[in-house]
Amino acid sequence: MSRPALIISDIDGTIADRGRVSDRTWAAIQAVRAAGIRFAVATGRAAGLLAPVLEHGYDGIAICDNGALTYDAGNDQVLACELIEAMVVGEMASEIAAQYPDLHLGLSRITPNPRAMYSEPRQVEVFDFGQQALHLDEFGMFPAAKIWAVNRELSSSEIGARLAEIAEGRVEVAWSSEGSGLVEMTALGVTKASACAALAHRWGVPAQDVVCMGDMTNDLEMLEWAGTAVVPANGNDAAKARADVLIGHIEEDGTAAYLESLIK
């Protein structure tokens, strides 16, 4: 297999297993970078939740919020963003809350810093991961990179089905884990693929020279766009259907083995 010019990888389930990047996988990432292959991550995580890679000292580019934010982790700078307009944020929050009061809502913004996260006070009480409390009537005060809806007693696809009609024509809907009970929304047309294409263009790399790695529903557009789509054995069926290369399970360092094979 010829070497790609750029590798863009999902984090959870692709390079990180249960929020941890193994030493072997991290060494493989460093090795491909040392070999002259550009490397970036593309995740549904907000910029404030990049601990799995930051704890290893990652200083590269992170496409966050399912494509809404392109973030230079080493310099703590936003390189690009595609935000949901404030009016749409407010409308979505109001309509979802009215129709589905059992869903807890939150959002990420790039102000006052690119790691700003907020959610309803009741969600902060249930699960605090560094977000600030924000009442629903304040959601529409500023644009947002991403809106999320969560209920741990439901599957993500069940929540996605609930939100489909409300979201149609206004936002994109995706999720990164069926069992998380978490669905994320970005501006219309904004996906990991749109941000990957913009990053590749910035670096002068044609799509055919890009490898994208991912495992879940929010990776599908990115896998379709890439010159080579790589999916681990733990990926869902939809992701596997788009794979050019199937690799080993995350629990068996499948991604590390694949990266190592590129530079032998």
Describe the structure.
There is one protein chain. The protein has two domains: 6-81 and 191-262, HAD superfamily/HAD-like (Rossmann fold, 3-Layer(aba) Sandwich); 86-187, Hypothetical Protein, Haloacid Dehalogenase-like Hydrolase, Chain: A, domain 2 (2-Layer Sandwich). It has helices at residues 23-34, 51-54, 86-99, 121-126, 156-167, 192-202, 220-225, 237-241, 254-262, and strands at 6-9, 38-42, 61-64, 69-72, 77-81, 104-109, 116-119, 132-133, 146-150, 171-174, 182-187, 210-213, 228-232, 245-247. The mean pLDDT is 96. 51% of the residues are buried. The protein is α/β, with parallel strands linked by helices.
Just name the CATH architecture of the largest domain. Answer: 3-Layer(aba) Sandwich
User: What fold name stands as the CATH topology of the largest domain?
Assistant: Rossmann fold
Largest sheet: 8 strands, mixed
Measure the end-to-end span: 10 Å
Averaged pLDDT: 96
Number of helices: 9
Strand composition percent: 15-25%
Any idea how many domains? 2
Number of strands: 14
Structural category:
alpha/beta
